[in-house]
Amino acid sequence: MDAEFQAVVDHHAIRACLARLARGEDRRDATLIRQCWWPQARFDYGVYSGDFEAYLAWVVPGAEAIANTQHLLDQSHVEIEGDQARAETHVLSYHRVIIEGEARDTCIGGRYLDLLAKREGVWRIAERTMLYDWEQDWGAAADWTSGVMGYPFTAGHFTGRAHGDFSLAWFAGKSA
To answer: Three-state SS string across 47-63, please?
Structure first.
């Protein structure tokens, strides 16, 4: 494989790893998350840091006070040098947080700084640092669990959730 094509393949594999991790975090899926981090990895989110096992225990099952999350990844700047890469990926993360019985919607804008390592042809995160650019508390959450914009949902599976999300059955081929 020539170097230019290999660079395209590596960039794609890195972005696929980051997307798989965001999905794993939102669904609190330890299997997906493990596919994205090397076992010896370290992380620092400012509010919590440590080794991979500490990260996994923090994210899965996740706080019951966070009923729903959604991580939206934007552009990544990736620099590859051999079997290591540095990536800066912009992220918007939405969180529905239950505080003293009240649901609130919050959003964080920031960047992941990832050091990735390629071993036996597989790219995974070796270190991650989260940078926070802004945070907005949107206030009391709207109740959209029975519909949106005045239109009722025809079934209960349309609302996203961290645990038991419809997409899990959908990817497993168990839904219509």
So the answer is: CCEEEHHHHHHHHCCCC
